[in-house]
Design brief:
Mean pLDDT: 87
Oligomer: single chain
Order of helices and strands: EHEEEHEHEHHEHEHEHEHEHEHEEHH
Distance between the termini: 29 Å
Shape: globular
Number of strands: 14
Helix content: 40-55%
Strand order of the largest sheet: 2-1-5-6-7-8
Structural class: alpha/beta
Largest sheet: 6 strands, parallel
Length: about 375
């Protein structure tokens, strides 16, 4: 039966009374979606009654359902542990549930919202269909895209609103049947804001990339730039299906190093010691790592395909990599920039990242309060 979405309350609940359950199929910090809610939670907890992310455990039980995600078999959709989740929900007593992903955990969150008679909204973070186009053949792509689109449609139609990270996705979720769409900013892990930043760069000396090592990130362009700019230092941090080819390039080039997967502390240290972060992705819903670099007072060179460019207030802390331009050619121009440009860009970057984080947290609280339902004490 096609039930209508939960309507927003006539009056928003007080923020301090919110009890929020986020249902996510992503491991914490394993990808952009997992990191998003790991970073959001510390900002919400001091202002709400309770909040928790319900997601797979890093060393969970054996799962009868285990489906690798496109382009990275290390990430999988797994069946939730129902007894554990029931215990979590009994303790949390949510008055709003947020479905973060269209996998088993996300679908379970939708069911739990009806069972607990609380508000329900969802988020659309990843274009899984676009990833499937990059990685899989016609038959597998058709099957997976059919499932993902069906799950996204099923969830979107039953959501009070669907949250997206850039305005370009609004038409997509409206076509899926979303009754309303909210374009949300991206929060920052508190350490990126609270830890004193290093001095602003005065010239381009070290360039870094950090993230999932996968084809959609266009890492080959970063490695090619290292070959063409032997006077600059290049550093890659992260893990993923292209790890072996990245390691081989680091072994080959004296000015390229690979540091493997990085903790948040190690990532901050890498950004602080670098002059510029580069994100040359073919596909990027937002580009959180660029915002993290900006929070550390480091400008970022970001592909024009990334959703971060939809936020005009961030423009002064970014350099745009146009479609068709190589990272190497862009760096040739940036090497010539004077110290004043680097210092001005760094200052704007830090201020803009801090302001977006404040607005994002306030916006989240407003949306959650508007769609939550009372009577769950």
């Amino acid at each position: 039966m096609n039930h209508p979405p939960n309507p927003p309350s006539d009056e928003a609940l007080p923020v301090a009374s919110l009890r929020i359950a986020f249902f996510s199929d992503s491991l914490p910090e394993r990808n952009g979606t997992g990191a998003y809610y790991h970073d959001l939670l510390p900002h919400l907890l001091p202002r709400v009654e309770a909040a928790e992310v319900i997601q797979p455990r890093p060393r969970g039980r054996f799962s009868l359902l285990s489906v690798p995600l496109p382009g990275d078999p290390t990430q999988q959709l797994v069946t939730p542990s129902l007894p554990r989740i029931r215990r979590q929900l009994r303790a949390l007593r949510p008055n709003i549930i947020v479905c973060v992903t269209p996998g088993p955990f996300g679908l379970l969150g939708m069911w739990a919202a009806r069972r607990h008679r609380c508000g329900f909204i969802s988020a659309y973070h990843t274009d899984f269909e676009g990833l499937a186009d990059l990685y899989w053949g016609p038959l597998k792509k058709r099957i997976v895209n059919g499932f993902m689109r069906g799950a996204n449609r099923f969830i979107s139609r039953r959501s009070g609103t669907v949250l997206v990270n850039n305005s370009g996705l609004a038409d997509d979720v409206t076509a899926l049947g979303a009754p309303a769409v909210d374009v949300m900013g991206t929060p920052l892990e508190p350490g990126f804001l609270n830890t004193p930043a290093a001095a602003s760069p005065t010239a381009l000396r070290q360039v870094c990339f950090a993230g999932r090592l996968a084809a959609e990130k266009n890492i080959d362009s970063f490695i090619d730039a290292a070959r063409q700019h032997p006077a600059l230092q290049f550093v890659i941090g992260g893990d993923g299906p292209l790890r072996k080819s990245v390691q081989a390039a680091a072994d080959e080039l004296d000015n390229l190093s690979y540091r493997g997967w990085l903790s948040r502390e190690a990532l901050r240290a890498l950004i602080d010691e670098s002059s510029l972060l580069v994100l040359p992705s073919h596909m990027e819903t937002f580009g959180t790592i660029a915002l993290e670099a900006m929070a550390r007072g480091r400008p970022a060179l970001v592909s024009e395909h990334a959703g971060i460019h939809d936020w005009p207030d961030l423009a002064d802390g970014l350099f745009t990599l146009p479609a068709g331009q190589s990272v190497a050619d862009a760096l040739t121009s940036l090497v010539a920039e004077p110290a004043a440009v680097w210092q001005r860009k760094s200052s704007h970057a830090r201020e803009a990242a801090e302001a977006l984080n404040r607005r994002t947290v306030d916006q989240w609280l407003t949306v959650l309060a508007r769609h939550a339902r009372g009577g769950r004490a």
